[in-house]
């Protein structure tokens, strides 16, 4: 049996409070929604669960509150087989919470109260250097403090490790961090914020990729929803389409993509093969409801 690739995920952990609704309320409007669900989420945790379910040996660096949601999330990660030795329980901050509304087309709006996620520190990252040393791929997002993100990227680069930054939620990244990255995986909105270029077709996607590469990151993948993913690396440049399906809920689709991508790249798959695997996983996830409840297992992608 082949040894599983070692994936280190650094990022946020939330409990998602989800309400289904026909449409999103306008300001000042109260509407009657549908079913309510309490689902483990957070971009970091979602990506860790995706990587674990899709064939990775996963370690997760995060902070949870020392509360009911924190204990529940920690138990969930352990059941997924994730190494939780560097998940810190903060006695002074609540666990992160996300309020999510999902409309009948599967689109969502999300408001996050970061809680303990904001307390994840550079010291926590330094204390987990042993996890950096054994990692084949490191995966990080932007629901934690930017100085922590930048230090993790610097550490990975200095250790010769490949780090993938999923720049979500959309925000500006310090220019000095780009050269530390192995790969960046923005969606169209995040790409526009980082480059100033609106991605509306293949030509604009290519121009945005080139602009990001000029900043120092060699490999760029722009996720484009139902259109698939635009890839710009030395190995391949172009769009990789995805299967058209009926969308139930887009929550965690990007996280599923990134977790799957990290596993495939850590297994030394070629970029086209890796992106196709990641798109297949994300496509399965949008046909299901919720964040971690929607993430598929490797047996479903066989």
Describe the structure.
The chain is of the alpha/beta class and 302 residues long. The protein has a single domain, classed as UDP-N-acetylmuramoyl-L-alanine:D-glutamate ligase (3-Layer(aba) Sandwich), CATH 3.40.1190.20. 32% of the residues lie in helices and 22% in strands. It is built from nine helices and 13 strands. It has helices at 43-53, 68-79, 122-127, 129-134, 146-158, 188-195, 202-214, 253-266, 271-285; strands spanning 6-10, 14-20, 36-41, 57-65, 87-90, 96-102, 108-113, 137-140, 163-165, 183-184, 219-223, 229-232, 237-240. The protein has a nine-stranded mixed β-sheet, with helices on both faces. Helix 1 crosses helix 8 (253-266) and helix 8 (253-266) runs antiparallel to helix 9 (271-285). It is globular. The model has no long low-confidence stretch (mean pLDDT 95).
Helix and strand arrangement:
Layout: E1 6-10, E2 14-20, E3 36-41, H1 43-53, E4 57-65, H2 68-79, E5 87-90, E6 96-102, E7 108-113, H3 122-127, H4 129-134, E8 137-140, H5 146-158, E9 163-165, E10 183-184, H6 188-195, H7 202-214, E11 219-223, E12 229-232, E13 237-240, H8 253-266, H9 271-285
Parallel strand pairs: 1-4, 1-8, 2-6, 4-5, 8-9, 9-10, 10-11
Antiparallel strand pairs: 2-3, 6-7, 11-12, 12-13
